[in-house]
Write a structure and sequence with these properties.
about 250 residues; alpha/beta; eight-stranded parallel β-barrel; three-stranded mixed β-sheet; 10 helices; about 40% helix; about 25% strand
Amino acid sequence: MQYTNFRDEIQLSRLGMSTKQLPIKNNENGTAIDYTKFQSIIDYVVSHGVNYFENLYISQNNESELFLLKALSKYPRENYFLAEKYNTNPNYAEYFQNQLKRLNTDYIDFYIIDDIQDSTIEKIIDSRCIQYFEKQKTMGKIRYLGFSFRGSLKTLWRIQEIFEWDFVQMQLNHFEWNYCDADILYDALMIESTPIIIAESENRDSQEMRWLMDLPQVAVILSTVSDILQFEENANIFNDCSFISCG
């Protein structure tokens, strides 16, 4: 597994796991997460060096968070990093405190203010949620604070003026790079030495994965994992045990 020397503080696996898509099974109530299969996937992923896990509370009927915590409970807490998202709930203080309770933890490793784009930036700024989460970071309840972004360069500059962010999550692929402005956004983040976490994509092939790995500002590339075979191909790409410095 390749690792990122993240801000000269921690070693992050360059391949991360997202719970956006988990194995499911049919039952009398319809469908549910297949916990036995999910546990085997987690065990396999951890054994192959992955230590970054992103959860989205609203995915899988709000159950993915509980299942992820249960699956990871057999491993020492200091051996992995949890990422959670804030989804612009107006009651952000209550929302965050409930996240801590559900996670049964005093802190969240990577906290992501979700969905910052041209049409949402002013609403997010006006809500003062950024100041609240900045305070939570100062108090040690958030280790690294970042945001997910899909907008223009002007909006990226606007949000960067407000806070010294620890990382940015964004979608990055050949299409975005060649036909949109992803290359311009990447260059702007590189100038600021801001680590980038690449959002999950269902259509990412091995060639594109290797291309992303060659971008020095990319810290972690997220992958959805619903079966072990799906993960094996990605793991093989990242099995070169080397380190990069990011941030």
